[in-house]
Amino acid sequence: QIGSYGDRECVRVYLVGGLVRDLLLGIPNVDLDVVVEGDGLSFARVLAETFRAKISLHEKFSTATLYLPDGLKVDVATARTEYYEFPAALPVVETGSLKQDLYRRDFTINAMAVGLNQDTRGHLVDFFCGKSDLEQGIIKVLYNLSFVEDPTRIMRGIRFVHRYGFRMEPETKKFALQALEQGLMEKVSFSRLKEEFMLILHEENFALILENLKEMGLWERIFPEWTISEEVIKLLKEIPPTWSWVKEYLAPLDLNLVILLVLCHHCSEMQIRTLNEKFSWSKLYRSALEKISWNKERIFQELATNSLSPSGVFSLIGDLPAEAIVYLILVSDCRQRKVIRNYLEAKKNLFMHISGEDLKCLGVKPGPRMKQLLDRVRKERLDGNLISRADEMTYVKA
Ligand code: ATP
Fold first, then answer.
1. What is the mean pLDDT of the chain?
2. 204 in contact with ligand 1, CB cutoff 6 A
3. Ligand 1 nearest atom to the CA of residue 152, by list position
């Protein structure tokens, strides 16, 4: 349909970017990126009106995002060419042809287009042999200075390598290492680095990507607080198998936070504070990172020295966010892990008969005292000392 409107408005319209790549690979992708040879912003306005879509315009880059009522998102851009005034700067943008638009892209596999106008509908436009690279599983830049202009492409490239099981073409790898050696990554703004980093965390093979970037010497350059040791890499690789059983006890869980806790495994309290400042994490993230950093030594000592009852473990880690408990499981030895698992099992099967309402009837006001009483009943239940509602009521009355 978009193509028909292109015909009506006399502009050439193309599907571009990741969707074309994934279409050729037969992988689902719902990110619709459209490039218009002509005035992309006017065309986006026509589409917004026709499809009753909400529109957000980014005039500086001649792009617009449409949010369709059925939830679909379409990015519409004017075909453009870009140049960089200095390495790692944001690009200066000028209107251009489709070929120029594709040439400014990161890798050949992402630089293909499919025609949408009636006369070209479904035709692949492939100026830079993207299809052949896709078939051979190669990640290749379009020009030698690609990483000099935008070093974050190195992170993108390694992300695609491990997402698709591809390899980086040797020259491209050489360019990447040269750009890193020249210290260009350090020139990129922190917000862009953070954005690329967060995208890595969403990948299924995040551990391999982080390891690969470690081998290339990236982390020391951009996030010096993190020591990505062999131990950390091993822990990262253990996240998916641990995840598969632990989510039975601790859902919902935020995988990103678990990964961050592991990345901060060797961090001092000071370094955690610095990272919290730099990244401006949410309150939940900050609190989980700080709590673990301040308490992990004590928790491990107690888990190691005592044969803790489930209620003892509850006192120790019951207040921690679920993600912090996953981190503790990851770094525990077999014995400590068993203690935590027993606690989780007991907690999972725990059903409290009494509630805050019952305590209110006994004259306890909502507040810390009520929480304390409920926690005490919970601990007794965890250890199997209270069985029935009558037991619980007798206990709180006493
Ligand atoms: P993903 O599946 O991770 O979303 P994608 O290729 O769709 O991958 P986007 O970030 O949505 O990635 O970008 C869309 C397209 O824009 C890419 O396919 C690529 O052509 C181009 N692009 C994105 N980032 C860059 C960059 N840093 N430099 C050059 N081109 C880029």
1. 92
2. no
3. 27
